Amino acid sequence: xxxxxxxxxxxxxxxxxxxxxxxxxxxxxxxxxxxxxxxxxxxxxxxxxxxxxxxxxxxxxxxxxxxxxxxxxxxxxxxxxxxxxxxxxxxxxxxxxxxxxxxxxxxxxxxxxxxxxxxxxxxxxxxxxxxxxxxxxxxxxxxxxxxxxxxxxxxxxxxxxxxxxxxxxxxxxxxxxxxxxxxxxxxxxxxxxxxxxxxxxxxxxxxxxxxxxxxxxxxxxxxxxxxxxxxxxxxxxxxxxxxxxxxxxxxxxxxxxxxxxxxxxxxxxxxxxxxxxxxxxxxxxxxxxxxxxxxxxxxxxxxxxxxxxxxxxxxxxxxxxxxxxxxxxxxxxxxxxxxxxxxxxxxxxxxxxxxxxxxxxxxxxxxxxxxxxxxxxxxxxxxxxxxxxxxxxxxxxxxxxxxxxxxxxxxxxxxxxxxxxxxxxxxxxxxxxxxxxxxxxxxxxxxxxxxxxxxxxxxxxxxxxxxxxxxxxxxxxxxxxxxxxxxxxxx
Length: 491
Ligand SMILES: Cc1ncc(COP(=O)(O)O)c(C=O)c1O
Known about the structure:
- This protein is of the alpha/beta class.
- It has three domains: 101 residues, no CATH class; 112 residues, Aspartate Aminotransferase, domain 1; 247 residues, Type I PLP-dependent aspartate aminotransferase-like (Major domain) (Aspartate Aminotransferase, domain 2), CATH 3.40.640.
- It is 43% helix and 13% strand.
- The chain has 20 helices and 16 strands.
- The strands form four sheets. Strands 4-12-11-10-7-5-6 form a seven-stranded mixed beta sheet, with helices on both faces.
- A hairpin with a 2-residue loop joins β1 and β2.
- The radius of gyration is 25 Å and the shape is globular.
- The two termini are 47 Å apart.
- Bound molecules: pyridoxal-5'-phosphate.
- Pyridoxal-5'-phosphate binds next to α10.
């Protein structure tokens, strides 16, 4: 696009964009030039163009005048920089933040330190043109990186052909995906129910399990995390997430310590529950804590003994995130345990929201027509994105990359040898380091940011790293180097 088109949008080519605001022009000029130079350019603009409100979209004539002034005053080598910044965003950073603060329900802490606008593999670029290496993958949802030309093309084609089909109806994009995905699932997990978020899929897994066991009781793990929908949050341990909604005394939920078999045995033998759900590597709330090696198998045996269903929540761990050998797509595979139900999500849409409950035939058969339903579940866009993403993961041999980069990452962390690192934990590319306190973790994350690393959310005194699974050897080296530097800068 030329400069004028970046200021006065052509909606036929970019229906997703607006005209630029003057505030954004000012910001961009301020980013590209020093104070004196930018003051001169902006003075010219203000002299020749009447601007009533800096945050209004520029009109055609205002935009044209500004484009002419910029073309005249900006040296050729700087024009590209200006264009890139405008391509990233035609709206100013401050306005973006202010509108979020004004209109977004504050269900979580608003992250406004970095406003990402473009991605390239593991790198993201902000409205201010700063480039960060990302170690979060958007909660593990951007495992193939932050832009994807193949998915872009596939979604463009699909949206131009057929954009919406409800969950109940036969459709071709889902058929294509079924042909690919069923080959990747652990043996016996053959029945899929598509959803749009991890929490929603966890809710549906609970419904399916309850329909099968004909019991309400669910055993969930202390420090487990399963999402924010009503059912998923009820079985999520952190009371702060449940209490405001009256979900802190659900008589059907039984929390037990992670990695301890006896308390589970007690509940199963009492007949109070016949459903067990867990993350094999506890993420959000436990700072990437893997199950002890024998726990999952002992749990499987116990579930068999009491005819209970074992649900593995692999929303975060699935699709190679925790591989320790090539072709390990699931944490359950890593631990050699076969769940009755698996919940999958995040990564397999390649960034597009799509999740699923996957189960055995005999379990699925207890669901009858009318027991559930979904407008968007497994819609053609989601299935198209998932189809392309999963084939890409296979083609890129993503599990092998996880094995190699994980080894490099763990070795590198050990080699840093910082006295501040009290523990290194995790599996695959789901990594945590324990620092002396929560305050150290916040400072560490700030220092990482100064070193152009965008870290993952922390859990208490654990800093977590969840890089996109496509991360290269050089990028892991870069990350390790910056982690070492950030630790050295901590007081
Ligand atoms: C293990 C696990 N289950 C479920 C969820 C919920 O997923 P979503 O945020 O897509 O609802 C998450 C999200 O982080 C998760 O880590």
